[in-house]
Amino acid sequence: MGIEKDINQYHFTSEGQKAVINLMYTSNWITEHIRAVLDDQDITLQQFNILRILRGSDPQPLSTLTIRERMLDKMSDTSRIVDRLVIKGLAVKKVCSADKRLVDVNITEAGKKMLEAIDHKQNEMTSITQNLSDAELKQLNTLLDNLRLPQ
């Protein structure tokens, strides 16, 4: 099976076009797989990403600007997503003592517990790579990193 069969398109203008379409298709496929795992926790992919960022900085708070810089999806409305995490009790925010214009965000114990539950599903989340060897995964990571090198 290949991208041609998956999307029922057998002609591409170039290998570059085929690669870009394949990356977009695969990205969506991966996102749907991970979204299915996160649905059990009633959490979105963006919320999951922010909680992981906050856990990584814990106990240091992060501003919403710093969170946005670290997010996988830079187009996300970070403030709105943080507000939803606060409503769910997974994060807290307070005015930054050093700069009253900024908001500091921390993960709560409930947020940590949710991430621990998701951590137990890590094998389920990464099972999408089971068809690749460690050497192939390393090569894939290198290729993806190279793809993002400045032009």
How is this structure best summarized?
The chain has 151 residues and is mainly alpha-helical. The protein contains eight helices and three strands, in the order αααβααββααα. It folds into two domains: 1-39, no CATH class; 42-122, Orthogonal Bundle (Arc Repressor Mutant, subunit A), CATH 1.10.10.10.
Protein model, in words:
This protein is mainly alpha-helical. It folds into 2 domains: 1-39, no CATH class; 42-122, Arc Repressor Mutant, subunit A (Orthogonal Bundle), CATH 1.10.10.10. Helix content is 60%, strand content 8%. The chain is built from 8 helices and 3 strands. β2 (91-95) and β3 (103-107) form a beta hairpin. The relative contact order is 0.10.
Name some characteristics of this structure.
3-stranded antiparallel sheet, 3 strands, 2 domains, single chain, 151 residues, 60% helix, Arc Repressor Mutant, subunit A
